Amino acid sequence: MKNTKSFVIGAFALVLLGGGCMSAPENITVEIEVPTRVEVGEQFNVIANITNTGSDAQELNSIDIGDEYLEGVIIYGSEPAYSETFHVPIDNTISHSMMHSIEAGETLSVSFDAEALIEGDYSGAFDVCVNGPVSCLYYSIRTLVE
Fold first, then answer.
1. Could you tell me which residues come within 8 angstroms of residue 94 by beta carbon, excluding any fewer than 6 positions away?
2. How far is CA 75 from the centre of its chain?
3. Residue whose C-alpha is closest to residue 80's, from 107, 55, 52
4. DSSP designation for 19
5. What mean pLDDT comes out for the span 83-105?
6. Which of 81, 56, 80, 79 is nearest to 131 (CA)?
7. How would you class 35 by CB atoms within 10 Å of its CB: exposed for 0-12, middle for 13-18, buried for 19 or more?
8. Alpha carbons 13 and 11: distance in angstroms, whole number
9. What is the pLDDT confidence band of residue 41, given thresholds at 50, 70 and 90?
């Protein structure tokens, strides 16, 4: 019975997190550049241009990339560099911790170094989180590996 109670409390916490705490960051726009086709073994970049249209500095917390995209593509670095990565099982992404300031009116370009590993059609989440891990803009990326 103890396990059931823990599950109910955990599920309730997830409902609270999902219902009240997640919001899109204000005064942020994102443009993503990702190749539509690459060859197996080809190295390429996924670029996110993140613009702060507000009057105060904001912080890029993380960029999360979906597991489905990463089934055929490996990310091996970025510029500016991420400080750590970890798996987020609730949304099936790999989170890349960034912690970089974006000054008012400025654009921060983040370029991920990637390599195509396995032939296939890969798409997945590309979430840009600003001022915290749950204040995100949600996108999808797709690359055909031939």
1. 64, 65, 67, 70, 75, 85, 86, 87, 88
2. 12
3. 107
4. I
5. 96
6. 56
7. middle
8. 5
9. very high
Q: Give bridge partners of residue 74 from the DSSP assignment.
A: 115
Is the pLDDT reported for residue 54 higher than 90? yes
33-38, Cβ contacts within 8 angstroms, sequence gap of 24 or more: 34/126, 34/141, 34/142, 34/143, 35/143, 36/142, 36/143, 36/144, 37/143, 37/144, 37/145, 37/146, 38/116, 38/143, 38/144, 38/145, 38/146
Structure token pair of residue 53: 């249209």
| Cα–Cα distance for residue pair 128/30, rounded to 1 Å | 8
> Is 43:89 a contact under the CB 8 Å cutoff?
no
Most distant CA atoms of the chain, gap in Å: 55
Residue 22 pLDDT grade (very low, low, confident, very high; cuts 50, 70, 90)? low
How many other C-beta atoms are found inside a 10 Å radius of the C-beta of residue 69?
A: 23
pTM, 2 dp? 0.84
3 class by beta-carbon count within 10 Å (0-12 exposed, 13-18 middle, 19+ buried): exposed
Dihedral pair phi/psi, residue 43, rounded to 5°: -95, 140
